[in-house]
Design goal:
This protein has twelve helices and no strands. With 309 residues, it is mainly α. The chain has one domain.
Length: 309
């Protein structure tokens, strides 16, 4: 019964997301001119190569970051991590909500069967958390630099401190005062996971790998902002890097809200909403499409090369 209801609810969620995507694109196509978009797509070879080079750097950084979150005794080469990110990039084109990333953890377990499942889940939690933390900190710092509101410096520092506290603090894995008869097995599993997750966090902080992953995530998003700003400058080179970056991060954070498939429709709509008045609706839509191509499609195509090897 539970499985049947879960499948039914999942279908409803997918239908809702499909309706939202259609709604967003209905509004988008009322704001753009397809003929003008085709013309706006043309960029110079030099710019294209420059953007592709940044995509290669982003591909490498994403692959390397996961290796810092790995704590297994078995040594895994860089090529393995490149293949892992390649497979995830391909699956992310097919599976919604970036659930293709789960293939990375499946492949780690397949290659190293003794690797604890709780460590895999820890890797997943930290990989997702690092992106969100860095984006929020960058948003706060950029807002401070634009508006001279130093409260947001304090806010970004507080976020980093809370994250540090989360790493260092042990989560209680035994709940002695709450024992539910019908969920005793589930409680035991949760308790076991939390126990191993605490060990994973402790090891991760002792060898400073979490901070290495944090630095890599910071560079990843800085290069991402440079890449998108380069696309925007094609249509208006008078705009400021910080102002653009503030809007770009807002769009990325909004597109993380799971109301569509991997931000499809949401991302394009808000690029037009925020950048349309600055560079034109058609140009803003083209930037959003290029963002998708360089961020998602190019890594998947590049992934085919590594997966075949």
């Amino acid at each position: 019964m539970f499985i049947a209801n879960f499948k039914k609810n999942r279908k409803r969620i997918y239908f809702f997301k499909f309706v939202v995507v259609v709604f967003f694109f209905f509004i988008i196509f009322k704001k753009i001119d397809l003929y003008e978009i085709v013309k706006a797509f043309s960029i110079s070879i030099e710019t294209l190569l420059y953007l592709l080079c940044i995509s290669l750097i982003l591909f490498f950084l994403s692959s390397k970051r996961l290796s810092f979150l790995y704590l297994g005794k078995k040594k895994l080469r860089l090529l393995f991590w490149l293949r892992l990110h390649s497979a995830a990039s391909i699956f992310n084109l097919i599976i919604p909500a970036r659930l293709g990333d789960l293939s990375k953890y499946y492949l780690i377990k397949k290659d190293y069967r003794k690797y604890p499942k709780s460590y895999l889940l820890g890797m997943f939690i930290f990989e997702r958390s690092l992106d969100l933390i860095i984006l929020i900190i960058l948003l706060s710092i950029i807002y401070t630099l634009i508006n001279y509101n130093y409260f947001f410096y304090f806010l970004s520092g507080l976020i980093f401190f809370l994250f540090y506290l989360f790493i260092k603090t042990k989560i209680p894995h035994k709940i002695n005062y709450l024992r539910l008869k019908y969920f005793s097995k589930l409680q035991k599993r949760i308790s076991k996971f939390l126990y191993h997750f605490n060990i994973y966090k402790e090891k991760l902080s002792k060898n400073y790998n979490i901070f290495k992953a944090l630095v890599i995530t910071l560079f990843f998003w800085l290069f991402s902002l440079i890449q998108i700003n380069t696309l925007i400058e094609i249509f208006n080179d008078q705009l400021l890097f910080l102002d653009n970056s503030f809007l770009i991060i807002k769009i990325i954070l909004i597109s993380l809200i799971p109301i569509t498939f991997s931000g499809l429709g949401t991302r394009e709509f808000f690029f037009i909403y925020f950048f349309g008045p600055l560079i034109g609706n058609n140009e803003a839509f083209v930037v959003s499409i290029y963002f998708y191509l360089f961020r998602y499609l190019f890594p998947a195509i590049l992934g085919l090369v590594f997966v075949k090897k």
